[in-house]
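In response to the reviewer comment on reproducibility (Comment 2.3), we provide here a single inverse folding case reported in full, input and output, so that an independent group could reproduce the run without further information from us. The structure tokens appear first.
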């Protein structure tokens, strides 16, 4: 991990004045980057705050101040940790098409480029995929840096709560295959996507995949439901000119 150091010296702030600190993140690889922004505030004219920090003082206080020789507070520190997660460029949309009132199962193959095995692990999640990078079947699930497994967490995200309410019960997604090519550093994840629309629609979602070693990939999905088949053809036979013809037919509700 690299430490990024920039120094803003001698900036004077009036009471209640705001200071914006720009942070630029330009990841070179798909891995976790960490940095810390430290803000050190001192009083003007080299004055100190007349408050003595003793050994018994609160641990956080001791850590967040700089102390002058006479024990008074010379400066106050604010420390902001920054965790950078690189995100791959957005991929082309995968289109899943089905006629309304039908059900389709589609195999979707997603390629993750630039994967680097690393030592950091994410907390366990419901949807996680472990990719073995060696032939040994006894490789532990989460990499410890020396073992060669990669763990991924995936999630189906919707653009809004309204789209979620429309799509969530109609779409299912399950990981069925994973493959890791060491030379090209490409991981292939194969999903089985089920789409069973009840009415014509066009909605978008995205599969978001995160690797424990760092890196995030986003794959847009477009769900298109076309018009359903005609239920039945009703033939009405005329009994004569200007006379009514009546045909009866039953409608059955699919829900209560």
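Designed residues, in position order:
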């Amino acid at each position: 991990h690299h430490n990024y150091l920039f120094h803003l010296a001698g900036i004077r702030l009036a009471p209640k004045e705001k200071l914006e600190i720009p942070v630029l993140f330009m990841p070179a690889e798909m891995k976790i980057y960490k940095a810390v922004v430290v803000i050190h505030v001192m009083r003007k004219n080299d004055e100190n705050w007349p408050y003595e920090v003793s050994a018994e003082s609160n641990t956080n206080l001791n850590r967040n101040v700089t102390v002058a020789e006479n024990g008074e507070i010379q400066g106050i520190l604010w420390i902001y940790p920054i965790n950078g997660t690189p995100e791959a460029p957005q991929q082309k949309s995968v289109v899943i098409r089905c006629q309304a009132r039908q059900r389709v199962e589609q195999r979707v193959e997603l390629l993750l480029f630039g994967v680097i095995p690393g030592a950091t692990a994410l907390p366990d999640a419901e949807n996680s995929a472990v990719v073995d990078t060696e032939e040994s079947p006894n490789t532990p699930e989460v990499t410890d840096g020396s073992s060669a497994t990669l763990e991924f967490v995936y999630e189906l995200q919707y653009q809004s709560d309204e789209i979620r309410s429309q799509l969530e019960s109609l779409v299912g997604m399950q990981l069925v295959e994973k493959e890791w090519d060491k030379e090209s550093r490409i991981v292939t994840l194969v999903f089985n996507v089920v789409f069973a629309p009840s009415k014509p629609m066009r909605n978008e979602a995205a599969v978001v995949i995160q690797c424990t070693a760092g890196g995030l990939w986003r794959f847009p999905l477009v769900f298109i439901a076309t018009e359903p088949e005609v239920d039945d053809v009703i033939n009405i036979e005329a009994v004569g000119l200007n006379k009514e013809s009546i045909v009866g037919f039953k409608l059955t509700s699919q829900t209560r």
